Amino acid sequence: MTTLLDATDLDAADPLARFRDEFELPDGIYLVGNSLGAIPRRAREYVNTELDRWATLGVEGHFTGELAWKDYHVLVADQMARLVGASTDEVVAMNGLSVNLHLLMISFYRPTQTRHKILIEDHAFPSDHFVAESQIRQRGFDPATSLITVPPRDGEETLRTEDILEVIAEHGDSLAMIMLPGVQYYTGQVMAMAEITAAGHGVGATVGFDLAHAAGNIELSLHEWDVDFAAWCSYKYLNSGPGGVAGAFVHQRHIDDQTLPKLIGWWGTNPDTRFKMATEFDPIPTVDSWQLSNAPILPLAALRASLDIIDEAGGIAALRKKSVQQIEFLDRRLAETLGDRVASLTPTALDQRGCQFALQVTSGNGREVFEALEHARVLCDWREPDVIRAAPVPLYNSFADIDRFVSILEEVVQ
Q1: Disulfide: which of 84, 127, 214, 217 matches 354 by Cβ 3.0-4.6 Å?
Q2: Confidence of residue 4 (pLDDT cuts 50, 70, 90)
Q3: 352: containing domain
Q4: In a shared domain, residues 180 and 57
């Protein structure tokens, strides 16, 4: 617990406070790292290094030195694996999030006439819904009968785990895949991933997660939970910059399964023989075999900068420890300052929430309040129909940021 310490005391005692200086922040209070993380100062250095290598080495940069571009994606594999609770062989940085979901669903959505349904949440992020729907259509099925959605109960905003498990059991014989978020984008709810995975496997379905709002936010154990696949972007809590390269996970037990269908490309074949230009695909014996093309070096350089800072800060466990303190502090400040004038849709239990708060203004003028916050240079974001999302990020947000946010929010609401 943060007890009743004020923001000044908490910042003074914060072992991660110095990492705020590792980032360049817009003027004002930046609480929107759940949408786009702040730029690491050293990202300029890392990206400029690659620009200089490009200028001086040209094509030889692919093969020269420890930063050789042909293996550049490997430089972040260890760090990404630690963030999601996986082995290095199970994680690769490639493509964008939706592209990775499509590639992984080609492998893990294998419908039959009797088992063809995909289970998603009713309020899924649009891209997840579109990916699932298009995969169903591509396999010759109809989303009207093959796409199952689980909604919150009437009058509730978050999903109950028991309801998800009930739907899994209900459709078990016909359920081919479960694809849910690790953290729900609108409410900030953390899903019971281990329990859902076990239930899905229990009825014979594959289970995957969209970790866009989870990677770098909460502690994950994908390998231990036996998750089949997962994908995530890196421009939110991993601070890789707009449109930054995404990540993908495939559980070790699937990697050597040559019966899995997949789209194949040059960068997924054995690097020892790749440049012999053979046309017989020899899959890399890791998740790297799902790669299609060579890595985007400049976005990866920015990601490396952020991952190095996360490591120096003590990794996801240290970030989560501070995040819990910030969550409790913001809870307390909202309760004592705004009372019932602002409600949070985010679950109260710490194991069901990350650093994002989903706030509703109970008077119903939430959009006006959001715009007034913007005018006051408090940067949050708005999600229809009526939620202000605010996310204190432990790497660069201080307790003073939270305190000032609540004070300004109180003024605006009044």
Answers
A1: 217
A2: low
A3: 7-31+315-413
A4: yes
